[in-house]
Amino acid sequence: MPELPEVETVRRGLAPAMLGQRLDEVEVRRPDLRFAFPQNFARRLTGRTVTSLGRRAKYLVADLDDGEALVMHLGMSGSFRIKGEVAGRFHHARSRLSAHDHVVFRLGGTTITYNDPRRFGFMLLLPRAELADHPFFAHLGLEPLGNELSAASLAGLFRGKATSLKAALLDQRLIAGIGNIYACEALHRSGLSPFRAAGTMATKSGKPAVRAERLAQAVRAVLTEAVAAGGSSLRDHAQTNGELGYFQHTFRVYDREHAACPTPGCRGTVKRVAQNGRSTFFCPVCQT
C-alpha cells in the first residue's frame, strides 16, 4: 500500500493539472471501488473548480469552489495518469489496462484517469467544514512532515507507553502516514531498536530524551528524501507521469535481510522478524 511519500508524490504530480481548473466532465465507469461512489458523484463534481489540493496522512483532499471536498485514497493499487496540456514531465503517459480505468476527470485540455486493478481505493465527496470530524480523519495523529514533529512531541505522544517503538510509529492515531517501510528505515538511521519501549522517548520527568531527537530527525529525513525520490516502487506505485519511484534503491535495512549493515563500523547483519503481523528489518548490533 502506498505510504505517505508515495501519496505526497502523487499530490505534487496532480497539482499542476488540477489547481485552479474547472472540472468540465467527470466519467465514472463503475458503481463502486472499495465503497460505492457518493450519490450523484459525477454530477456534483461537474462544473466545480479545484481551489486547493492537499494531503492528510495517506488521503488526497481536493477543495472545491462550492465548499465541498473530494477525498481520494489510493488503496493498494490505485494510481493516476495525466494526459494533455500539462507542461513538463507530467505530460508523459504510462501503460495501464484500460479495463481498470474507473474514473476520468476532464479539465480543459487535460485528462486525469484513475486506474485501480484491485479496487481497494475509494473517493468521497463531503462538506469541507465536516472533514476533520469524519471517521476517516477524526482520530488521525500529527503530520510527520510538518513542524509538529519534534523530540518534544514524540516524548509527549509516547510517554508511558510500553508498546514497542515500531508499533507506536505505525499507530495512525499518534502520527499519521508512516508505514512499515519508513518506520524500519527511520529506526535504523536513529540507531533505535524496533522492540524498544516507546515510553523511553521521554525521561521520567516527561522531557524528551536524546534518543527522541535522533528519531524525530530520522523520520523527517527519511520521509523528505523519499518524497524527493518519488517514493518507493515495490509493487504498484508509480508517479503520475508513469515513472517509478526510486527510494527503494537507498533502503538501508528494508527488504535487505542477510545483507551487511550499512552503518559505518558496524559488523552486524540485517535481520528480518515478524512483529505485530508485519515484517521488521533491523540490525541487532547497532540498533539498541
Give a topology summary.
Blueprint: H1 4-18, E1 25-28, H2 41-45, E2 50-56, E3 59-64, E4 68-73, E5 79-84, E6 101-107, E7 110-115, E8 122-127, H3 151-158, H4 165-170, H5 180-190, H6 210-228, E9 271-275, E10 278-282
Antiparallel strand pairs: 1-6, 2-3, 3-4, 4-8, 5-7, 6-7, 9-10
Helix pairs in contact: 1-6, 3-6, 5-6
Structure description:
α1 packs across α6 (210-228). It is built from six helices and ten strands. With 288 residues, the chain is of the alpha+beta class. It has helices at residues 4-18, 41-45, 151-158, 165-170, 180-190, 210-228; strands spanning 25-28, 50-56, 59-64, 68-73, 79-84, 101-107, 110-115, 122-127, 271-275, 278-282. The protein has two domains: 4-133, MutM-like, N-terminal (N-terminal domain of MutM-like DNA repair proteins); 151-282, Helicase, Ruva Protein, domain 3, CATH 1.10.8.50. The model is unreliable at 87-95 and 232-247 (pLDDT under 50). A four-stranded antiparallel beta sheet has the order 1-6-7-5. Strands 2-3-4-8 form a four-stranded antiparallel beta sheet, covered by helices on one side.
Write a concise keyword list for the protein shown above:
2 domains, single chain, 6 helices, N-terminal domain of MutM-like DNA repair proteins, Helicase, Ruva Protein, domain 3, 288 residues, elongated, 4-stranded antiparallel beta sheet, alpha+beta, 20% strand
Give a short synopsis of this structure.
By secondary structure, the chain is an alpha+beta fold. Helix content is 22%, strand content 20%. The strands form 3 sheets. A 4-stranded antiparallel β-sheet has the order 1-6-7-5.
